[in-house]
Design a protein that fits this description.
By secondary structure, the protein is mainly β. It has a single domain, classed as Porin (Beta Barrel). Helices cover 7% and strands 55% of the residues. The strands form two sheets. It has a 16-stranded antiparallel β-barrel with strand order 1-2-3-4-5-6-7-8-9-10-11-12-13-14-15-18. Strands 16-17 form a two-stranded antiparallel sheet. It is globular, with a radius of gyration of 25 Å.
């Protein structure tokens, strides 16, 4: 029998070198932008040029409500999103912060990871899940936001977990600093727990939020229960209802809205909304008034694939004189608005 050289035997006995691991695919990065500008005229002709109880509040001048640039990175197991912004809306929503200028340039700034069991965890500055309306007006049926939107939080800073449960249901749980609280002012945290079910043309969402929002050792918990439903009546007609109620010590509130939208053509639609707020308190704090109702009619024309022109009439009525009327205050406010929204 022929002899095999020892070096060959060693070579054959040596374990095969491990295959080099394939490098992770680079993240997919998407860049977008958004511009919302308007001209609004108030029949009350406020002396200081500012209307009341509105996110969009400038009378008699062309105004940039929002200009934003967004970047989203998506990889196999992680994702991140940053939206920088400027404009009147950015100033309005950050005014509650101790140092508004620190947070005004940011609309969103978050990163997340996909865990086992389809659980996704995100942390950072994120838009609030409360209510059906958005800070991005192109996603709303009407151009101006409802009374409920102005009264309720628009963003949170904290951590969020989401998980699909099957049957079109997605659950979510949050732990955040509080309502519009990028800077935590009381060391307490607020929890939000909810679920959304999407079934064809029907969407139903329910959410609870609870935590201490005020300062002081004896500050009571604030409890909120929020829900909305969207139903596609036909291919061209949708209706929506939103209701929100809360309690904080001796304070109580109830707010909500009814919506309807009809698409006349592929590029033209009309929408109507009736909304309001009722607060039971010696010192109302959500909007500074015990009760207010509003009626809004909006016509929208998609002038191009990503350009939206809108015309809107709105009338507000409050239980107390809070609306600017010349140099005085009145109980009603009527405005007419034209707006242009473009995005990419």
């Amino acid at each position: 029998m022929s002899r095999i050289p020892a070096c060959v035997l060693l070579f054959l006995a040596a374990p095969a070198a491990a295959e080099p691991a394939e490098p992770a695919a680079p993240p997919v990065i998407a860049i977008g932008g958004y511009l919302d500008t308007y001209y609004m005229y108030s029949l009350g002709r406020p002396a200081d040029g500012v209307t009341a109880l509105r996110l969009e509040s400038v009378h008699g001048g062309f105004t940039v409500a929002a200009a934003a640039i967004e970047a989203t990175a998506t990889a196999e197991r992680w994702h991140a999103r940053v939206v920088v912004q400027a404009g009147a809306d950015a100033a309005a929503v950050s005014v509650v912060e101790p140092v508004p200028s620190t947070w005004q340039p940011l609309r969103e700034a978050s990163a997340g990871v996909s865990l086992g069991g389809d659980v996704t965890v995100d942390a950072g500055l994120m838009l609030s899940p409360i209510g059906p309306e958005s800070l991005v007006s192109k996603d709303d049926w009407n151009w101006s936001r409802s009374t409920a939107f102005v009264a309720l939080p628009t963003y949170h800073v904290g951590v969020r977990a989401t998980r699909p449960l099957g049957g079109g249901v997605t659950a979510q749980a949050w732990l955040v600093n509080g309502w519009n609280a990028a800077t935590d002012g009381n060391r307490g945290k607020t929890a939000l727990i909810g679920a959304t079910r999407v079934d064809g043309g029907t969407t139903i969402a329910l959410l609870y939020a609870g935590g201490v929002e005020a300062t002081g050792t004896d500050a009571p918990w604030r409890h909120l229960l929020d829900g909305y439903a969207i139903v596609a009546v036909t291919d061209r007609v949708d209706v929506m209802a939103h209701v929100d109620g809360g309690i904080e010590g001796e304070r109580r509130w109830l707010t909500g809205a009814l919506y309807a939208r009809a698409r006349a053509t592929d590029t033209v639609e009309v929408a109507a909304r009736v909304d309001g707020l009722r607060e039971w308190s010696d010192a109302p704090s959500l909007l500074g008034v015990e009760r207010v109702v509003a009626a809004t009619a909006t016509a929208s024309w998609r002038a191009a694939a990503q350009v939206l022109l809108r015309a809107e009439l709105r009338h507000d009525r409050a239980g107390d004189p809070v609306f600017p009327d010349g140099d005085a205050l009145g109980r009603t406010q009527t405005t007419a608005t034209t707006a242009l929204t473009a995005w990419f």
